[in-house]
Design a protein that fits this description.
Elements lengths: L1 H4 L3 E3 L10 H12 L7 E6 L4 H10 L6 E5 L6 H21 L5 E8 L6 H6 L8 E5 L6 H11 L3 E5 L11 H14 L3 E4 L17 H14 L3 H8 L5 E2 L3 E4 L2 E4 H10 E6 L3 H9 L7
Parallel strand pairs: 1-2, 1-11, 2-3, 3-4, 4-5, 5-6, 6-7, 7-11
Antiparallel strand pairs: 8-9, 9-10
Helix pairs in contact: 3-4, 6-7, 7-8, 7-9, 8-9, 8-10
Length: 290
């Protein structure tokens, strides 16, 4: 469990539904990092507009060290896409120049306008050097082709949005399974964001998937070369047998090595809450195994 959850959650408290102020979000992030669940907490997620406040904060917290993931705004046209990239690049450069000894921007994430023309959008990312890049892909019929194209470049990771404020913004288990299958088959690092606050599906809302399911499904997919339909079955599994060095379900077992392989591809899950995952793990009796 500790291997499965280590650094799994990039903290996105600035975004809905938490929608905290910068002061509230950075305090919450630091608080979780200092508590027993700190091993689960990854990067601090913010937009380019939050970087000036973060820069000011670092001057009053000179010993703070953590990684930042900057998320660009969604766009629908080439003009808006290019403008968004310019705005993000300027904001990150300015932050880096003024906060050289503070928390570092390690990742940049942005949603492409569409999957069909992904090669066009990727050309504009060539100037983002020395930073991890994750391209968020929309849910459409061209997503698998976009993943395959990105795999050829060996420079980028991909990202998918697994939730939102309304039910229709949550993709189905089959959609997420096809995404995971494509990433595993092409060995493309990936991130998921939103709608994964709970370990198992339907613990709170019937259309939500579970973060433990995502980790185990990825491990099973890699270890057993599963099809997307088989991955979907693990995404909807409601019970796992957790031992000290293995996790089992449906007559299949993944060990520590399998889980570590999965986490080398599943980089992180964006979440605006760390408290909910912890509370649910405690309810399931899994927290004591950590």
């Amino acid at each position: 469990m500790r291997s499965a959850l280590n650094g799994l959650f990039d903290y996105a408290g600035l975004y809905p539904p938490a929608d905290l102020s910068f002061t509230e979000a950075i305090a919450e992030y630091q608080s979780h990092r200092d508590r027993p669940e700190g091993f689960m907490v990854g990067r601090f997620v913010c937009g380019p507009s939050h970087l000036p406040a973060l820069s000011d904060w670092t001057r009053t917290h000179p010993s703070a060290q953590f990684e930042i993931a900057v998320v660009g705004p969604p766009t629908t046209t080439q003009e808006a896409w290019e403008a968004a990239l310019d705005k993000c690049a300027v904001a990150m450069s300015k932050y880096d120049a003024g906060s050289a000894d503070g928390p570092s921007v390690e990742a940049f994430e942005i949603k492409v306008p569409d999957n069909k023309n992904v090669d066009r959008w990727l050309r504009d990312l060539r100037n983002f050097e020395g930073i991890e890049l994750f391209v968020e892909l929309p849910w459409d019929d061209h997503q698998a082709d976009a993943i395959a194209h990105i795999a050829e470049l060996e420079l980028l990771g991909v990202k998918a949005r697994t939730g939102g404020l309304t039910p229709e913004l949550h993709p189905s288990a089959d959609q997420v399974a096809r995404f995971i299958h494509g990433c595993c088959g092409a060995e493309v690092p990936f991130k998921l964001t939103a709608g994964l606050h709970h370990p198992l599906p339907a613990m709170f809302k019937p259309y939500e998937l579970g973060f433990l399911n995502v980790v185990v499904a990825t491990a099973m997919a890699l270890a057993e070369d599963l099809s997307s339909s088989e991955i979907a079955e693990f995404l909807t599994e409601k019970q796992f047998d957790v031992a000290e060095d293995a996790i089992s379900a449906a007559d299949l077992t993944v060990d520590m090595e399998d889980i570590e392989d999965a986490r080398s591809l599943l980089v992180a899950i964006g979440s605006c809450s760390i408290s909910e995952p912890v509370a649910d793990l405690q309810k399931l009796g899994l927290w004591t195994s950590l």
